[in-house]
């Protein structure tokens, strides 16, 4: 089970969704604790108990979807725990601002579904800000923990080699992906090999299958020609090692 969870955590969107669900639960619990249960949008449209339950279910689904977007967009730039929490907090505040602006024209019609915890009065505004901030912090911390779990589940002695060249425009993204992989998997040996620099020194023998740049080799086997999706690359790294391919020598 731990190995499967580690593989899930290696996928940015899926890891973000799991973290966002955790953050959504924190949001719902805090909102219920800080407001009269159920939370509703004012005296005109009180939320009956069934609608309140639906509101929390929608809020959890929204938190999961936002977490998936957070993991996909910022997961590779998460860094350490402090940076992850800071990015999560900023994400929560930004979403609170956007939700408040978008929801205002439709209030009170959507309050029964989502719960009016993001504006309307000074009290609900503060509650909404606190809940969104906690959502972001918990989501960021959970995503960092998910990344740490994926790193611990990494098979031993894995090696990622990324072949680039100075004339290759897409190799800028290859450098970024290599750095992101090294940050995501501390136990992974990552080497970025510049073919132009290698040729300026001594002749190099390229591994079989490297016919273009950027090229990605995992444990000596070509896994991508051209830049892969980060989610696909990280999932491949976190998976069980394949049989060793014929990896030739590499340049330094």
3D architecture notes:
- The protein is α+β, with helices and mostly antiparallel strands.
- It has 2 domains: 2-152, no CATH class; 159-238, Glutaredoxin, CATH 3.40.30.10.
- Helix content is 57%, strand content 8%.
- It contains 9 helices and 4 strands.
- It has helices spanning 2-9, 12-34, 49-74, 81-103, 111-114, 122-152, 171-184, 195-200, 230-238; strands at residues 159-164, 189-194, 215-218, 221-225.
- It has a 4-stranded mixed sheet.
- Helix 1 (2-9) crosses helix 6 (122-152).
- The protein is elongated and about 65 Å long.
- 38% of the residues are buried.
- The model is unreliable at 37-50, 108-113 and 243-252 (pLDDT under 50).
First-last Cα distance: 39 Å
Work out the helicity level: 55-70%
pLDDT averaged residue by residue: 74
Q: What is the H/E order? A: HHHHHHEHEHEEH
How many discrete structural domains?
2
Report the count of strand segments. 4
Task: Estimate the global geometry from the Cα principal axes.
Answer: elongated
Helix/strand class: alpha+beta
Rg (C-alpha, Å): 23 Å
- Low-confidence residue ranges: 37-50, 108-113, 243-252
Q: What is the beta-strand fraction?
A: 5-15%
Number of helices: 9
Task: Give a quick account of the main beta sheet: strands, pairing sense, barrel closure.
Answer: 4 strands, mixed
Reading side by side through the largest sheet, how are the strands ordered? Answer: 2-1-3-4
